[in-house]
Write a structure and sequence with these properties.
The protein has 11 helices and 10 strands. The chain has 288 residues and is an alpha/beta fold. The chain binds guanine.
């Protein structure tokens, strides 16, 4: 970071765009800005009201596309439903590919398919980083990914495949899901269904990475997942809501390694976002 700043005469810059007032999105964006500041990166946030139109949002992205001091652009999802079902795709399509630190632009997705993407989606990259740092062998392993979203499931499966895992992508229409996932040495879940993945989904000793996050406000769900007197139940009692992953807590008794939600891959996602921003900044500086 410091070397770039010395050469360029300014720090790497990240422009975040936040639309509406989804509380979780505000939390994520604040965490990104705080981490950026701690690492010497400039990050700012352009906020639009939930009532903003898609053309208004596209105009903000266009301003950041033209900006000399923004090397990376991140439009926080989800966007308000009122913007239309294809709003996210239309936004990701107009972010300049060389500033696309989310790795969501079709050019970067296409390059990821060919294993030559300069900028790759942050959460799946964070999962790979975590597996590698934990010395979990990916090459030759059987891996299962539950969820086929553009943001996590699809890029996750591609990254695992490029590291020579044998990958199965599972989704809501997969027949006999536990039978498929319980063959996997590495299981990554990205569904957003609280506690859905129970021990019968998991091969004993497998590495399980939970990427689902669901804000639960239904007491019955919390009582199904957490024992009376447990810390998480108490926390729900105080706050009336709880962030819960896809993976049922009992999976800890079966898995060889478990990255839970909360407390798992989140900080790595942010670290990879900052790394992508620095990469984008260096590429832009070199291209001048
Ligand atoms: N919302 C949840 N995860 C992400 C992400 O990785 N990038 C963006 N832009 N929005 C998100």
């Amino acid at each position: 970071m410091a070397a770039f700043t010395a050469r360029a005469g300014r720090p790497p810059g990240l422009g975040i765009v936040l639309v509406g007032d989804d509380p979780a999105s505000h939390l994520y964006v604040n965490a990104k800005i705080k981490s950026a500041a701690e690492t010497g990166l400039h990050a700012d946030c352009s906020q639009l009201p939930a009532s903003a139109s898609l053309p208004e949002l596209l105009a903000v992205v266009e301003r950041l596309n033209q900006s000399e001091v923004h090397d990376g652009i991140l439009v926080q999802s989800p966007l308000p439903d009122s913007m239309g079902a294809d709003a996210e795709r239309r936004v990701f399509d107009v972010v300049r590919p060389d500033k696309d630190v989310d790795g969501f632009h079709p050019v970067n997705v296409g390059k990821l398919v060919q294993n030559r993407a300069p900028l790759v989606a942050c959460t799946p990259s964070g999962v790979i980083e975590m597996l590698e740092r934990s010395q979990i062998a990916i090459a030759g392993a059987r891996a299962a990914v539950i969820g086929r979203s553009d943001i996590v499931g699809k890029p996750m499966a591609l990254l695992l495949m490029h590291r020579n895992a044998t990958v199965t992508i599972c989704h809501s229409r997969t027949a006999n899901l536990p039978r498929v996932t319980s063959q996997a040495d590495i299981l990554v879940t990205a569904m957003g269904r609280a506690g859905f993945v129970t021990p019968d989904f998991v091969k004993p000793g497998a590495a399980v990475v939970d990427v689902g996050t669901t804000q639960v406000t239904d007491r019955a769900v919390v009582e199904r997942l957490f024992a009376p007197g447990s810390k998480r139940r108490d926390a729900f009692g105080r706050r009336g809501s709880l962030v819960v992953g896809d993976v049922h807590p009992d999976v800890a008794n079966v898995a060889g390694a478990l990255s839970p939600v909360p407390g798992g891959v989140g900080p790595l996602t942010i670290a990879l976002l900052l790394r992508n921003t620095l990469r984008a900044a260096e590429e832009r500086l070199a291209a001048r």
